[in-house]
DNA sequence: ACATTGTCTTTACACTGTCAAGTTGGGGGC
DNA sequence: GCCCCCAACTTGACAGTGTAAAGACAATGT
C-alpha cells in the first residue's frame, strides 16, 4: 500500500504506463489497480469509475503535452524567427502523437467531456499556440490563422501517427514545413 | 433467422446502426447479434472475433465515405472551377466526420490494421482526392499538395467533430476555405 | 475518549469476448 | 432417392470486465 494521499497520482501514472506499453485495451481498472498494488475497487473510489479515470489520465496527458510544446519553444534562442518557433513547436506536436499514440488518441477522445480540469489543460496548450500565431500576424486577428494552423498540424499528427495516410509509405514530413509557410503567408 | 448467406452484411448493418445510435460503447458482439436476431456467437464465426468485425465495419464505412465524396463531386456541373470542386468534396469530408462521429473514429482507429479489403477502400478515397488535387497543379507532382490538403481537411474534421477546438465555441468553417486556398496557391 | 470521515477491501452481479462442443440444414456424389 | 458432409449457427462454459453495496480500518477533529 502506498503512502496515504498519493494513490490517485500513482493510479494515473500506472494508467499512463499501461497505455504506452499495451495500448488502449490494456487500460483496465483492475490492471491499473494491480499495478498500483491496491484492490480493483480503489480506482473507482477516487475517480468515480473508469470514465473518470480516463479523464484524469487525459488531463495529465495534456499537461505533459503542454510541457513538450513549451520545452520545444524554449529550446530556441531568444529572438528566433517567429515562423521557426512555430514550426519547431508544431513538430513537437506531431512527434508527441507519434511517440504516445494511445495516450494521444485517448486525450482527443475525451475532449467532448465537460470537465473543468481537462478544459483548463486543453486551454493552456491553446493559448501557447495562439501566442505563437499572434507573433506572426500583428495586423490582423490571430484566431483564424490559429485555427488553420492547428488543424493542419493535428491532421499531419493524426495521419502520420497511423502511418496509414499515403497507403504504404509514411507521411512526408518535409511537406509540412512548406504547407505551414503557405498558411502563414 | 435471415436468408442464408446474407448474415454478414446484416451484421455489419446492425453494427453501423448501433455505432450511430449509441456510440463506440454500444458496439458489442452480443448486441449486434441480438439486433440481427442470431445467437451471440454467430458474429464471431463469420468475422473471427470482435476485431475482425470492426475491420469489416470500418471497410464498409470507407465505402460509404467514398460514396459521399463522389456524390459531392458529381453534384457540381461539368467544367466547374477545380478549386470549387475540391472545396465541395472536402466539406463533405468534414460533414461526414461530424454526422457519423463514432464510425469516423472507428475507421481511422482501424487504419493501422493490415487488411486487404480495408486497404483497398482507403485507397479509393485516396485516389479520388488525389485526382482533384492533380487538376489544380499541372506543372508539379500532386502528392505533396494532396498530403497537405488531406491533413488540413482531416484536422478540421477531427477538431470540428469534437466541437472542442476553440474551447467553447465551434470551429469557424469559413476559415477552412481561406486556408485551403492558401495551400493550393 | 469518542464519533466521524475518508480510504480501501471484500463480495456479488451483470455483462463482455472467446472457445469447444453440439445441432441443424442444405447441396453434391452415388 | 439417399446419404454424407460441410458450413452455418446454437448452446454452454469460462475468464475477464465495470459497478455497486457493505464492511473494516485508520487518521482526524472535537
Number of self-contained structural domains of chain A = 2
User: What is the C-alpha radius of gyration of chain A, as a whole number of Å?
Assistant: 18 Å
Helix content of chain A: over 70%
| Overall average residue pLDDT of chain A | 94
Poorly predicted tracts of residues of chain A: none
Task: Note the quaternary state here.
Answer: homodimer
Quick one: CATH superfamily of the largest domain in chain A?
A: Tetracycline Repressor, domain 2
Reported by name, the CATH topology of the largest domain in chain A is Tetracycline Repressor, domain 2
Class derived from helix and strand content of chain A: mainly alpha
Shape of chain A: elongated
Give the CA-CA distance, first to last residue of chain A: 57 Å
Number of strands of chain A: 0
Amino acid at each position: 500500500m502506498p503512502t496515504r494521499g498519493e494513490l490517485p497520482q500513482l493510479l494515473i501514472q500506472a494508467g499512463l504506463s499501461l497505455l504506452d506499453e499495451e495500448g488502449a485495451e490494456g487500460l483496465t481498472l483492475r490492471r491499473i489497480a494491480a499495478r498500483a498494488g491496491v484492490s480493483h475497487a480503489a480506482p473507482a473510489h477516487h475517480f468515480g469509475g473508469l470514465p473518470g479515470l480516463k479523464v484524469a489520465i487525459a488531463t495529465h496527458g495534456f499537461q505533459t503535452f503542454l510541457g513538450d510544446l513549451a520545452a520545444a519553444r524554449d529550446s530556441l534562442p531568444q529572438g528566433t524567427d517567429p515562423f521557426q518557433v512555430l514550426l519547431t513547436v508544431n513538430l513537437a506536436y506531431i512527434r508527441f502523437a507519434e511517440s504516445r499514440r494511445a495516450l494521444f488518441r485517448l486525450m482527443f477522445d475525451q475532449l467532448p467531456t465537460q470537465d473543468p480540469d481537462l478544459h483548463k489543460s486543453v486551454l493552456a496548450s491553446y493559448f501557447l499556440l495562439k501566442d505563437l500565431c499572434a507573433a506572426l500576424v500583428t495586423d490582423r486577428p490571430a484566431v483564424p490563422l490559429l485555427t488553420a494552423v492547428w488543424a493542419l498540424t493535428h491532421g499531419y499528427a493524426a495521419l502520420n501517427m497511423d502511418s496509414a495516410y499515403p497507403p504504404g509509405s509514411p507521411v512526408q514530413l518535409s511537406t509540412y514545413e512548406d504547407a505551414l509557410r503557405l498558411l502563414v503567408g
